[in-house]
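Example record

One chain of 269 residues, shown exactly as stored in the release files.
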Amino acid sequence: MAVSSTFTAADGDGYELQMGRWSRRLAGPFLDFVGTTNGESVLDVGCGTGRLAFALAERCRIKQLRGVDFSPAYIEHATRHNHDPRIAFEVGDACALAYPDQSFDRVLSLLLLHFVPRADQAIAEMRRVARPGAVVGAAVWDLRGGYVANRIFFDTAAMLDPKVNDRRARNYTRPMSRSGELAQAWLAAGFSEVVETTLSIRMEFATFDDYWAPCVGKDGPQAEYIATLSDAERARLRDAVRLAYVDGEPDGPRSYAAVAWAVKGIAPG
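Predicted structure tokens for this chain:
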């Protein structure tokens, strides 16, 4: 993620609980879509705790893979769990990548661009470091229409606290998260053979406590909002969200659909 990212990041283990377990699951369909080839140099922009990088290395014999993220905590976590000498992680800015022009055979970004206010600048940087003919691809959540587990939280919070409406609106109108936006941005950046699609996974929780735990951590929009609440307000919100989670049945496993927009294109010569 970029230095200018709007994502609240503090702890690698917290991110794993909040999003890493889902980016791991989304990595498979995303790599099916963008493709993989042996012997490539690959850049993972907004690598987080390294789930896309590790999934790619398991699929093919990469030459090298660099992962860059704005969060030192996430880079430390990814590095600590990395046992592949072909992979290296480093702190950096997606809007000012510290690599020469035309350095990589494939440039990928998973769940980053909707948290970058200047997404066009990050996309321009992805194009700059891609070699001619390289595949450049990205995916972001369909925040408004395909992110059920997240909407349970914010829709409930907005019913309890009208001030959350502005926060909710910002969360579900982030850049690159609407139909066609990624494709338009890729075409504007000069990529050819641009294809946009949707990717679907399931977010599965063992219990309400499993669902709620990331909300009271230090990472992501839910935790950012909860940090503004008093103990009483937090307890009231928890009780209301729990009712939405159990939905008239005993507490236990729940499975929610999660849909992402994805795009790929070919870097020009």
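Notes: The longest helix spans residues 12-34.
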